[in-house]
Amino acid sequence: MTSETTVTTGGARRESRRRGVWPLVRDILVILVVAVLVSFLIKTFLVRSFYIPSGSMEQTLQVKDRILVDELTPRFGGYDRGDIVVFRDPGGWLPVESVPEQSLPVQAVDWLLSVVGISAPDSKDHLIKRIIGVGGDHVVCCNPLGQITVDGTPIDETPYLDLADGQTAPEVVSFDVTVPEGSLWVLGDNRDHSRDSRYNVDQPSQGFVPIDNVVGRAFLITWPLPRFGALDFHHDVFDGIPDAR
Fold this sequence. Notes:
Radius of gyration: 26 Å
């Protein structure tokens, strides 16, 4: 009788432990699923994480910087000259690269990391530049000082341009464009090392970026930690331009 009672009691304890572990595992799974869903919604409608694959925006942005992009605010307020924007290739801006096939587990891990904001696997499929002209702007390069003019007003871009020692202006790449409504004219801060609107006038987009291609406005460097901080749009550079919009 004692032996049977001991076996029964031991089995009950093991069963109780199993029942005690499952609710904990279930709760952890629920928390993870909710966290992934919330992160997915935030990333889809509010902010996205990207990393910088090239030096075209130096010194404002360095190679391998990680940034956050505001997707929501521009939907209501639009974009302004000076904003730094991430956008999908309008066609022909990026070189065609062969992408190696990945196994399903690797794809699943990449997707999960991108959802929670740890990874940004599609960064190389996007570009990041500064807006110089918006719809209706007449943008010309350059005046005798090497400055771009917008609607006849020269702009002093020295606060953000990455110039070599002794260089007072970027190398002149002439253009004279009027930006169509619903499009942007964008240039890199590292002007002499940026394949931007100037070099894509022979592409289907004629060098303009349709606003529908814009993911959002970059606003924060999140990594590396010593560079953590808000991005400066230098809107004051464009203050002298008559706003006829």
